[in-house]
UniProtKB/TrEMBL annotation:
It holds the Pfam family DUF1223. It comes from the Bacteria. It comes from Zobellia barbeyronii. InterPro entries: DUF1223, Thioredoxin-like_sf. This is DUF1223 domain-containing protein.
Length: 259
């Protein structure tokens, strides 16, 4: 009799553990599946990073993992800031405009100063970019919220050193603008000085150009130059975001550029 009770308890415990794994897996699948719906949820992850920062490489890896794991739900952007350049290594992707963008976010968040690695989610929240726990929590939270707007890209063309595209918008557009971003898929760099000296860094999702587009109608055409630093055989993506007056991201769309 005692043996039967022990066996029954074991069966219940095993079943409970199995259900727990199934629930976790199903939850992740449900988040990903929503990306195919109209006005689907979006998770825009903006990583502020630098090749001169020793704590940044793990964040770069984590951002790429999030992109790989969640597919079309996640929009990954790496902004290389310039304020680490003084330490001896000038990050080839660094741009003072990206540090200024980060500063505006931190003023909004009432954060005392810029820091790296920092991830900003949909322009609404931030955390240390190397925290896998916070990354998963943010994707779960914002991946369950329907986007306020929708952007549809079409007629995307690459001609010589520029890209042109048409866009169509859904939802309220008052006090909002678009940000068109060119994103280099991957570049490997041998860092010779600074905190990461003698290391070979594989950076991903690198923002190489950005343009603000004033919204005048629900449909429009725009174009932007491709930086000469981008090699012709390198994979390049176009991401277009809609942003409101307080830097919240309300829509996103992306497409690979065929060069």
């Amino acid at each position: 009799m005692v043996g039967k009770r022990i066996a029954l308890i074991c069966i219940v415990l095993i079943g409970g553990v199995t259900m727990a794994f199934k629930v976790n897996f199903k939850s992740k699948k449900e988040i990903i599946s929503k990306a195919s719906e109209d006005n689907a949820p979006i998770v825009v992850l903006e990583l502020f990073t630098s090749q001169g920062c020793s704590s940044c490489p793990p964040a770069d890896v984590l951002l790429q993992q999030a992109k790989d794991d969640y597919g079309s739900l996640v929009y990954a952007l790496s902004y290389h800031v310039d304020y680490w350049n003084y330490i001896g290594w000038k990050d080839p992707f660094s741009n003072p405009e990206y540090a200024e963008k980060q500063r505006k976010y931190n003023i909004k968040f009432k954060n005392k100063s810029n820091y790296t690695p920092q991830v900003v989610v949909n322009g609404k929240a931030h955390f240390v970019g190397s925290s896998s726990f916070k990354m998963k929590a943010a994707i779960a939270q914002y991946g369950a919220i329907k986007a306020e707007n929708k952007i549809t890209l079409s007629n995307v063309k690459v001609e010589k050193e520029s890209v042109s595209f048409n866009y169509k918008l859904n939802g309220a557009i008052a006090n909002k603008s678009l940000r068109a971003v060119l994103v280099l898929d991957k570049r490997t760099t041998v860092v010779k000085r600074g905190e990461n000296r003698n290391k070979t860094l594989a950076n991903n999702n690198i923002v190489v150009a950005e343009k603000r587009i004033i919204i005048e109608d629900l449909e429009g055409i725009s174009s932007m130059k491709i930086p000469t630093a981008v090699e012709k055989d390198e994979k390049l993506n176009l991401i277009v975001l809609m942003v409101n007056g307080v830097y919240d991201i309300t829509a996103a769309s992306k497409t690979e550029l065929l060069r």
